[in-house]
């Protein structure tokens, strides 16, 4: 079994997403037809109205048995974060929350720390999406919320092709991995590469570094489709790199543990 823990779907007629057009992405994206009974976690896509997007994702999840859960968006640094969290937590199949941190001046926000503590009290994990250069700031932030389960998206978005930046990425990722409550999503690398040849050349090293630093019990799979497009199958590509003894953990066991449904779901 494969649980793809990072799939994006959207329908801009249901929830507007301003950045899609400039990124060359279509106005709709659906759950892909993949053989083998694959399951999915639907991750928010930075919609203009996060509550509207969360309602739509939850409705899709409630009707589609392939969807294990939804990671919804909540602006945890806002004054009404507690109210928004309570609302999202009541939606069907919501198993996590993401607040996009990349390119946003939020790492030193005391309000964000308070919002993360509220999230931990709800028993929901936090998806952290940052760029490689922001990993040290993320580490300092997460050190303040040791009770919060965290999943780093896209292995911290390493800067492929820049040798010095890659060395720094590995050092910074190692520091983040020292926090035992942080896990790593093996995802997003196709979007960081210029083409299929570059992806082919770097995948083993990048994925290998992430698995070495976090260990196989703290890593999980995510296709990041359709933002990331792998000419083959990203999930199968990653699993082929792992020793057989670790494949089940990375393929689905860790994600099922981290993104556990609550009894009411």
List the keywords.
10 strands; 265 residues; two-stranded antiparallel ribbon; eight-stranded parallel β-sheet; alpha/beta
Oligomer: single chain
Question: Compute the gyration radius: what is it?
Answer: 17 Å
Spatial strand arrangement across the major sheet: 1-4-5-6-7-8-9-10
Span between N and C termini?
A: 21 Å
Largest sheet: 8 strands, parallel
Question: What gross morphology would you assign?
Answer: globular
Low-confidence stretches: none
With helices defined by DSSP (H or I, 4 residues minimum), what is the helix count? 9
Helix content: 25-40%
Order of helices and strands: EEEEHEHEHEHEHEHHEHH
> Overall pLDDT, averaged?
96
Give a short overview.
The chain is α/β, with parallel strands linked by helices and 265 residues long. It has helices at 50-63, 81-89, 110-121, 135-142, 163-177, 189-192, 196-214, 234-241, 244-258, and strands at residues 3-7, 10-11, 28-29, 39-43, 67-73, 94-98, 126-128, 150-152, 182-186, 219-221.
């Amino acid at each position: 079994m494969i649980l793809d823990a990072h799939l994006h779907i959207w329908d801009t007629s249901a929830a507007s997403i301003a950045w899609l057009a400039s990124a060359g992405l279509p106005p709709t994206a659906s759950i892909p037809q993949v053989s083998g009974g694959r399951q999915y976690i639907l991750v928010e896509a930075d919609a203009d109205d996060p509550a509207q997007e969360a309602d739509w994702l939850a409705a899709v999840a409630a009707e589609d048995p392939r969807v294990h859960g939804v990671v919804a968006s909540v602006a945890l640094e806002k004054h009404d974060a507690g109210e928004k969290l309570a609302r999202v937590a009541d939606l069907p199949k919501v198993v996590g929350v993401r607040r996009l941190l990349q390119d946003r001046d939020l790492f030193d926000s005391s309000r964000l720390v308070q919002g993360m503590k509220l999230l931990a009290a709800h028993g929901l994990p936090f998806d952290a999406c940052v760029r490689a250069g922001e990993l040290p700031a993320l580490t300092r932030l997460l050190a303040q919320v040791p009770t919060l389960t965290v999943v780093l998206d896209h292995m911290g978005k390493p800067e492929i092709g820049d040798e010095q930046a890659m060395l720094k990425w590995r050092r910074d990722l190692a520091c983040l991995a020292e926090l035992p409550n942080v896990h790593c999503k093996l995802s997003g690398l196709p979007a960081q590469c210029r083409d299929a040849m570059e992806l082919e050349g770097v995948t083993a090293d990048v994925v290998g570094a992430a698995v070495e630093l976090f260990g196989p019990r703290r890593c999980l799979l995510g296709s990041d489709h359709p933002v990331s497009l792998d000419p083959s199958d990203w999930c199968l590509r990653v699993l082929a790199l792992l020793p057989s003894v670790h494949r089940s953990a990375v393929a689905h066991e860790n994600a099922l543990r981290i993104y556990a449904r609550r009894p009411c779901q």
